[in-house]
Amino acid sequence: MLKVADLRGLSMQELEDKILALKKSLYEMVLQKETGRIEKPSGIKDARRDIARIMTVLSEMRK
Question: So what CATH class is 4-62?
């Protein structure tokens, strides 16, 4: 789980890169869930929340 205080210290490009990595990871976890091979199903929820946190920080930076 990512901390908002840590995210605010990153640049916009770094945040966007993190979003892309998390989205790729989320996609892979959803595929694993569908095939029944996922080890940690709660990782899907955590990834979605981390993406939302990063998007919130990006939105604050753009204002």
Answer: mainly alpha
Each residue of 5-63: pLDDT tens digit?
Answer: 999 999 999 999 999 999 999 999 999 999 999 999 999 999 999 999 999 999 999 99
With tokens 């993406």, the residue in question is 51
Q: What pTM, to 2 d.p., does this model score?
A: 0.91
Q: Residues in the chain, how many?
A: 63
HSE-up of residue 12 (Cα within 13 Å, Cβ side): 6
* Dihedral angle of Cα 47, 48, 54, 60, to the nearest 10 degrees: -160
Query: In this structure, are residues 21 and 54 in contact, taking their beta carbons and an 8 Å threshold?
Result: no
